[in-house]
Amino acid sequence: MKSKVILVPCDSYEEEQVYEKIKTGISLLGGWESLIRKEEKILLKPNLVRKAEVSRAVITHPAVVGAVARLLRENGYEHLGCGDSCGVGDARKVMEGTGMDTLLDQYDVTVEDFGKASMVDDFYLARPVQEADALINLCKMKTHALERVTGGVKNLYGCISGFHKAQGHTRYPNADSFARMLIELNQKIRPRLCIMDAVVAMEGNGPTSGDPIPMNLIMIGTDPVAVDSVFCHLVHLKPELVPTNIHGERMGLGQWKEEMIQILTPDGEISMQEAVKRYGDPDYNVDRRKQRKNIWSKFRYIMKPFGKRPYIVDADCKKCGICVEACPVEGKAITFKNGRKEPPKYDYKKCIRCFCCQEMCPHKAIQVR
């Protein structure tokens, strides 16, 4: 069967407009009761990677999270929680000042503690994730240094608790192995619904240091691979260049091929070509380079110095040390060499190219080349 992806135009984060748009999208998908039973315990999982101004498009917008909470309450759902395992700080601290915490309190949604966790198979899952009957994935449309984009599939990495997320990068040190792990994680959790905030997306040096760009959409589906694939089409990136798409189909999570995706809008069904024409942006700043597949790819250790790597723009560095703390490598691949008189320095022989440092830098001082 084809995977349905709903595209609802939305050009503002005005709360009433977002509420109406998501309400329309859920109706096109078949309504809440076709997705979740009333008695089930529901967990909302936004992208709360770290504290940042809402206008920077780092986190899922509070208006999207609030609208989903409101709709669930209005439709008779009683057991609602919300949380994320943030890169820096906890969910409540990341929410403070954004208005998200106020909206969740207004709709009596519990902000869950993702610090409580235990091992489930190969994953150290946050306790609220384990206890939920239905998880709703509230992801953000953004670029990503390792996987090219981060959307529906990647957002569930926040279900792994605390420093175990960083440890995962050492166990899965390249884009392919990390993608396969993400697919297994999605299959373990089985999110019931994926809603992508693409009203204002992030391009460039994502997922936290990029630039906001209006895409004026809310995307909804039950297949996170299909949602991510449509994301790729809209930004003129071949979906097959994104490892989570390829492995997502191979491992049975969802569909990425155009012919296996049905696109619905408030005006009716449209083709992928029409969706790209209406809502796409060919100038969206994302890595579209084709990965080399030749004899040199078999010699990864030899070719490592010539691959992508993070670097610090000294003029932008505040010497806060967050990048050093974020590095998951034992012995650290980035350290201060002379106290904090100068920016940290990389030891590229140790660096595994996980880009945790770049992701956590709050000052946009770390780039990738």
Task: Describe the fold and architecture.
- The protein has 369 residues and is an alpha/beta fold.
- It has 2 domains: 3-279, 3-Layer(aba) Sandwich (Rossmann fold), CATH 3.40.50.11440; 295-368, 2-Layer Sandwich (Alpha-Beta Plaits).
- Helix content is 31%, strand content 21%.
- The chain has 14 helices and 16 strands.
- The strands form 4 sheets. Strands 1, 2, 3, 4, 7, 8, 9, 10, 11 and 12 form a 10-stranded mixed sheet that branches.
- Helix 8 crosses helix 10 (243-250).
- The protein starts with a strand and ends with a strand.
- The relative contact order is 0.14.
- The mean pLDDT is 94.
Number of strands: 16
Q: State the end-to-end CA separation.
A: 40 Å
Major pleated sheet: 10 strands, mixed
What is the CATH superfamily of the largest domain? LarA, N-terminal domain
Number of domains: 2
Q: What structural class do you assign from the helix and strand content?
A: alpha/beta
CATH topology of the largest domain: Rossmann fold
Q: Order of SSEs, N→C? A: EHEHEHHEEEHEEHHHEEHHEEHHEHEEHE
List keywords for this structure.
2 domains, 16 strands, Rossmann fold, two-stranded antiparallel sheet, globular, Alpha-Beta Plaits, ten-stranded mixed beta sheet, about 375 residues
